[in-house]
Amino acid sequence: MIKSLLIANRGEIACRIIRTARQLGIRTVAVYSDADAQALHVREADEAVHIGPSPARESYLIGERIIAAAKQTGAEAIHPGYGFLSENSEFAQAVKDAGLVWVGPNPSSIDAMGLKDAAKKLMAEAGVPVTPGYMGENQDPAFLAEEAAKIGYPVLIKAVAGGGGKGMRLVESPDAFIDALASCQREAASSFGNDHVLIEKYILSPRHIEVQVFGDSHGNVVHLFERDCSLQRRHQKVIEEAPAPGMDAATRAELCASAVRAAKAVNYVGAGTIEFIADGSEGLRADRIWFMEMNTRLQVEHPVTEEITGVDLVEWQLRVASGEPIPVAQDELGIDGWAMEARLYAEDPAKGFLPSIGKLELLQFGDAEGGRIDTGVYEGAEVSPFYDPMIAKVIAWGEDRDKARERLSEMLSDSAVWPVKTNASFLVKALEHPDFVAGTVDTGLIGRDGEAMAQVPEPSPQVLQAAADSLVAAYAMPGLRLNAAPVRKAWFLLDGQEVEIAIGDGSDDPAESVLVTEQGQAWQLSPWRREGVHGAAAGSGAILAPMPGKVISVDVEAGQTVSAGQKLLTLEAMKMEHTLTAPFDGVVAELSASAGQQVQVEALLARIEEQE
């Protein structure tokens, strides 16, 4: 067994790997950037090495520094986690060439599955069904537009080196194709250093089904059943579950057998996931499920598989990397109950899910029987603008699907974070959506009904009154009127907005402010003060940077007439592109942004004036 392990990652997955390594008696080494000097994974590891500045391209993506840190600390092996360099075959080979153990698949397997077009060809040869599309070398925009027309709209443009929802665009009509292609290629080049794309048919009632596979160096490959990851927002997974609702035994057997064939076709070693797209219009049928891609690493959603099988996949990774065979045979694996995972992110649904950064002054996770929290932060930690804004993976197990869903909803509802905003209430609404309850989710659900789910709830009158009472002195008589009953109401500020709240007896020791927590949300309530009311005037037309980032493109000029909703510029931040649009019809009165410019949060980028 490996005695010492360096984790070439950060956040919750680094903490997750450290937890299992500690149980196995393996010494752990963390690496960290400037932004992560006080991070949880640094605190939990036995040793930590600084590897560079905050941007990932200057730290976590520099393989030479990570290998040097392993040698410096005497680590025998490197675990890449997911993201960063986890699917970089050159890094994997460099680790091996340095005489270290690579906790992952062979570099040749990563290469075979690394490009979506080549992987699909390989899978077709192995007898694994693939979706129709164009996967050739010709990248001329006009030619690709012709191929899209042959396939038939809607189509998906996908970066061949893509993943994590990036480098992917849904195009529903020919007139939108060229712009979507340019945006997809730009994001792919920025994220993966490769702007090559493929075109494939978009399934109208798509479900995202994936199979967990595992191989060892002795020629064994097993599957650990399927997961359903159909609830997605902009091609990024939101809630995952195992097993897949509506999956019968015969379809499961055929699907999982295809996944094992796919893994064997590339001599796969370690944990991997075969991703399929299913046409769910007539339920799950084996002849309407097609291969999409393989992720040659541990998945973010691996805990749901662990919860229904009782397997620690990280332990398996470490054992197989040490040369051991897979601990059990296929017929010894089974499904016990149901599990669901929600990704709790630091983002504000009320502002288009823009990432929310800052200090976690309050961090409270809900609890339930069968519950599990995988996190890489702690109360008092900072949510940085440099990395993925995940706060935690909230996981619930139940004897059946309804029980798992109810427990997950309870855990999210009882969670509270402040002042950073989260998507907790959005997740609860998604879990309570009739289609999700019925298990008939497709990947377009949030696109159709997400606006209603994103509405941030208000605290209940009962919770507000209890909070208001703690802010009002017991002897105060707000609303006292001569010859009439007193009006027991007072004005307060709820997150800076004026609200009138009924109050009770008040407090002998009133507080200056109080946090109100309910439905997975947190609000600050304070006594009304005129000087506390501030903010830009409505309709000011100021276009401010929602977070620190880089201006990728500017689509207007000063003095240009624009219409409401028209794209003004694109900002790259938190590993995603964000389009800023005109708030109303008007003219570009001021334009201070330029392509390539680095901007800080709330920097004035443009100003739109209404035309008289």
From TrEMBL:
| Cofactor dependency | biotin
Domain Biotin carboxylation: start-end pairs: 1-451
Record-annotated Lipoyl-binding domain positions: 534-609
Q: Which spans of this chain does the record mark as coiled coil?
A: none
Q: Does the keyword Disulfide bond apply?
A: no
- In terms of superkingdom, the source organism counts as Bacteria
Residue ranges of every copy of the ATP-grasp domain listed in the record: 120-322
Q: Enumerate the UniProt keywords alphabetically.
A: ATP-binding, Biotin, Ligase, Nucleotide-binding
- Xref: PANTHER family: CARBOXYLASE:PYRUVATE/ACETYL-COA/PROPIONYL-COA CARBOXYLASE, METHYLCROTONOYL-COA CARBOXYLASE SUBUNIT ALPHA, MITOCHONDRIAL-RELATED
Protein name (Swiss-Prot/TrEMBL):
Acetyl/propionyl/methylcrotonyl-CoA carboxylase subunit alpha
User: Source species, please?
Assistant: Novosphingobium kalidii
